[in-house]
Specification:
mainly alpha; Arc Repressor Mutant, subunit A; 3-stranded antiparallel beta sheet; 3 strands
């Protein structure tokens, strides 16, 4: 027979409807902040968009759309779709010169996105 003692836990009475947990269990992110973080992460959650951003941030100038299309493992309509999403988010922009479009990263917008994501994640 084992002579170890089992600690007893004292149970306290609580009134009906009262919570057993601490009241500080509310989320720290507001609904709006959570939605913004979710949108930001969804925008970054595709490998093609990350590759496009990588290519554009490494170049100081503009990158021709033909160079983006040649470097990525997807067809032109898919590249255009991802460029459209990044432009709509304000992270990149383009300038047309004749038949070609030259894309560039908007460094201020990319820095703001980075600050939002890092700030929100650091707060979790």
């Amino acid at each position: 027979m084992n002579n170890t003692t089992v600690p007893t836990i004292e149970l306290t009475e609580r009134s009906r409807g009262s919570r057993c947990c601490a009241n500080d269990s509310a989320p720290r992110l507001s609904a709006e902040a959570a939605q913004q973080l979710s949108d930001d992460l969804q925008l970054l959650a595709h490998p093609i968009r990350l590759q496009i951003l990588d290519m554009l941030t490494r170049r100081e100038g503009q990158v021709c759309v033909c160079d983006l299309e040649a470097a990525l493992p997807v067809k032109q309509p898919t590249v255009s779709h991802h460029l459209k999403l990044l432009r709509a988010a304000g992270l990149i922009d383009c300038e047309r010169q004749g038949l070609w479009a030259y894309y560039f990263v908007r460094r201020d917008a990319l820095a703001a996105l980075r600050a939002r994501v890092v700030g929100q994640i650091a707060g979790l």
